[in-house]
């Protein structure tokens, strides 16, 4: 079930990028998105490894390039959200497979899917809302906000270190 | 840092920096789902952990090849944990025969997680110090590993071969009656001699034939008195004297032989002590009966080899531990340098029985057949035969045991022929 869902999300992420780039006549972007999607789908059957991480990184990178190149950001946001969910599910499935016995596997998987849907769905909505907001910032504000964001990110990641 | 967390952080930093550099708001929007995902993981990260573990073993002492069931319970006395992976830290030489040694589950406050499995092992002392617990946030980004104490141990005793009887004749026996014939005549079973009647002698001892030849005197039969003795078992645990081959370790055979001998001597009512010479000086004080059997099996279960230079030779054998002129039984593959000390022990009045698992035959059995191996094996055999001849010359009883023969067969063949 998890693997089927992950495969569906990979297809969704790649398809959103292909359509988005295609609508903007970025054929190279469409081709790259399709190729990444196919490689990632192929790697799904094998134990989790570099293919999953590379696929995720490539699709998010492609989405970033697409936004910079002028592709409609909504498609790219969908690509990012779907790729993130597929990446998470692949690793979750791997964690389950590593252990001989999983207690209440169905309930656990269901709870995980719900949490993931909430986080990614909320991210997609907030990201979508952010695309609609447009305001100009001076260089000072931009630098200050950027610094604040980087410090915040560092603090968020900090406790994860051993 | 977890590689997934690193990858996610790189993507977020990359998108944010690209957004700031290119002043493109869309790039910043792309980072938002990733940021929210990271934030959700961070919020569910386990911070205050209070886990306790308890272990229950079905047996503390088992004989070889008998399985032991382990029940391990991990209880969460802290906050709710999204993903808990419980992994047993098994001693290396144990084999899991049933059940699982790892489990993954969410653990609510007050909830518990159980592992139930059976293991089997070779002779030895097995200690379970702790259990490994890996804790994840809901998305597996912030991982935390804990080792929770859950002590427990069990021993696997060596296989004890039943021997029918081992005849020993120490010069000194104890006062209690047993089955070892002694030099002074008295009550017993085996005929010893005839002496003049003394008041108090039982009438059934009267030797009518001898008394008839001497009309003025009465003669009585004397029998060999049968007593119990002090037996000092010495197990050679020196690495220098051991041999290894694909069949295993010769020391294991020596331990089994020592267990069989301890059993037979204790069953005959003797007082048996055990000294393990090698890693350290491990001494089990002499005693009788079933309790002593347990003590000796405990000592043999945890017996380990040592390779220190101090115990390289038998010179440091503390002979004061063994009563003078008692019976010593050495179980050892023997080194060439051991002959001197063994002859000295014999000269001091100890009766000495040496059970020697044959290291040459054992090691040669594990080597591929070739002229060089044949020649080397022949030379080693000659050397060993010379050593054994030296010991026999010093009136030391020997059992040269080729371990492919069962010990009971080898012991019975050698010890039943022993001089009485």
Describe the 3D structure.
The complex is a heterodimer of chains A (162) and B (420). The model of chain A has no long low-confidence stretch (mean pLDDT 86). Chain A is mainly alpha-helical and 162 residues long. Chain A has helices at 2-23, 27-44, 50-68, 73-98, 105-132, 139-157; one strand spanning 101-102. Chain A has six helices and one strand. The model of chain B has no long low-confidence stretch (mean pLDDT 87). Chain B is an alpha/beta fold and 420 residues long. In chain B, helix 1 packs antiparallel against helix 2. A six-stranded mixed β-sheet of chain B has the order 16-15-12-17-18-19, sandwiched between helices. A five-stranded mixed β-sheet of chain B has the order 2-9-8-4-6. A four-stranded antiparallel β-sheet of chain B has the order 1-3-7-5, with no helix packed on it. Chain B has helices at residues 3-22, 25-43, 208-213, 250-267, 289-301, 338-347, 359-365, 371-393, 407-415; strands at residues 51-57, 61-63, 68-76, 81-88, 94-99, 102-107, 112-121, 124-136, 143-157, 177-196, 219-227, 230-236, 244-245, 248-249, 271-277, 281-287, 327-331, 351-357, 397-401. Chains A and B meet through helix 3, helix 4, strand 1, helix 5 and helix 6 of A and helix 1, helix 2 and strand 6 of B.
Helix share bin of chain A: over 70%
Overall pLDDT score of chain A: 86
Order of SSEs of chain B, N→C? HHEEEEEEEEEEHEEEEHEEHEHEHHEH
Q: Output the helix-strand order of chain A.
A: HHHHEHH
Instruction: Return residue spans of chain B where pLDDT drops below 50 for at least 5 consecutive residues.
Output: none
**How many whole angstroms does the radius of gyration of chain A measure?**
18 Å
State the separation between the terminal residues of chain B, measured CA to CA: 75 Å
Task: Give the strand line-up of the largest sheet of chain B.
Answer: 16-15-12-17-18-19
In which range does the helix fraction of chain B lie?
25-40%
What's the main sheet of chain A like? Answer: none
In DSSP terms, counting alpha (H) and pi (I) runs of 4 or more, how many helices of chain A? 6
**Helix count of chain B, per DSSP?**
9
Q: Which consecutive residue ranges of chain A, at least 5 long each, have pLDDT under 50?
A: none
Structural class of chain A: mainly alpha
Class by helix and strand content of chain B?
Answer: alpha/beta
> Total number of β-strand segments of chain A?
1
Tally of DSSP β-strands of chain B? 19
**Percentage of residues in strands of chain A:** under 5%
């Amino acid at each position: 079930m998890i693997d089927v869902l992950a495969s569906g999300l990979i297809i969704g992420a790649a398809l959103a990028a292909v359509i988005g780039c295609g609508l903007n006549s970025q054929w190279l972007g469409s081709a790259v998105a399709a190729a990444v999607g196919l490689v990632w789908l192929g790697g799904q059957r094998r134990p989790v490894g570099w293919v999953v991480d590379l696929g995720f990184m490539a699709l998010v990178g492609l989405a970033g390039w697409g936004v910079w190149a002028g592709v409609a950001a909504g498609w790219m946001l969908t690509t990012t959200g779907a790729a993130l969910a597929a990446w998470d599910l692949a690793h979750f499935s791997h964690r389950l497979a590593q252990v001989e016995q999983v207690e209440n596997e169905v309930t656990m998987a269901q709870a995980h899917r719900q949490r993931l849907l909430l986080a990614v769905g909320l991210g997609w909505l907030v990201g979508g809302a952010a695309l609609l907001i447009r305001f100009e910032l001076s260089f000072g504000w931009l630098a200050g906000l950027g610094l604040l964001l980087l410090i915040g990110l560092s603090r968020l990641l900090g406790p994860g270190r051993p | 840092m977890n590689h997934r967390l690193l990858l996610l952080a790189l993507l977020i930093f990359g998108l944010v920096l690209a957004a700031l550099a290119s002043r493109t708001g869309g790039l910043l929007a792309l980072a938002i789902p990733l940021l929210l995902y990271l934030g959700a993981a961070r919020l569910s990260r386990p911070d205050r952990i209070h886990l306790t573990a308890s272990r229950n073993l079905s047996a503390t002492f088992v004989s070889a090849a008998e399985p032991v069931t382990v029940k391990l319970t991990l209880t969460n006395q802290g906050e709710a944990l999204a993903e808990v992976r419980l992994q047993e830290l098994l001693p290396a030489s144990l084999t899991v025969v049933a059940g699982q040694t790892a489990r993954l589950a969410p653990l609510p406050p007050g909830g518990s997680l159980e592992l139930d499995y059976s293991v089997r092992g070779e002779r030895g002392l097995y200690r379970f110090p702790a259990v490994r617990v890996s804790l994840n946030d809901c998305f597996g980004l912030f991982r935390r590993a804990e080792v929770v104490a859950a002590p427990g141990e069990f021993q696997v005793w060596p296989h004890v071969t039943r021997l029918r009887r081992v005849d020993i004749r120490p010069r000194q026996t104890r006062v209690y009656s047993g089955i070892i014939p002694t030099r002074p005549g008295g009550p017993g079973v085996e005929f010893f001699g005839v002496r003049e009647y003394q008041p108090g002698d039982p009438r059934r001892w009267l030797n009518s034939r001898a008394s008839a030849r001497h009309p003025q005197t009465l003669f009585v039969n004397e029998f060999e008195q049968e007593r119990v003795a002090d037996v000092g078992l010495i197990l050679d645990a020196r690495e220098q004297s051991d041999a290894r081959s694909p069949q295993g370790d010769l020391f294991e055979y020596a331990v089994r032989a020592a267990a069989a001998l301890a059993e037979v001597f204790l069953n005959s009512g003797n007082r048996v002590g055990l000294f393990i010479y090698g890693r350290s000086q491990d001494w089990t004080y002499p005693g009788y009966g079933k309790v002593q059997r347990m003590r000796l099996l405990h000592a043999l279960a945890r017996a380990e080899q040592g390779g220190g230079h101090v115990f390289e030779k038998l010179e440091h054998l503390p002979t004061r531990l063994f009563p003078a002129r008692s019976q010593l039984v050495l179980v050892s593959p023997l080194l060439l340098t051991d002959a001197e000390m063994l002859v000295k022990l014999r000269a001091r009045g100890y009766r000495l029985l040496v059970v020697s698992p044959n290291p040459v035959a054992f090691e040669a059995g594990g080597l591929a057949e070739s002229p060089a191996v044949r020649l080397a094996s022949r030379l080693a055999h000659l050397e060993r035969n010379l050593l054994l001849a030296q010991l026999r010359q010093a009136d030391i009883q020997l059992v040269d045991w080729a371990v492919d023969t069962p010990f009971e067969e080898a012991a019975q063949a050698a010890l039943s022929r022993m001089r009485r």
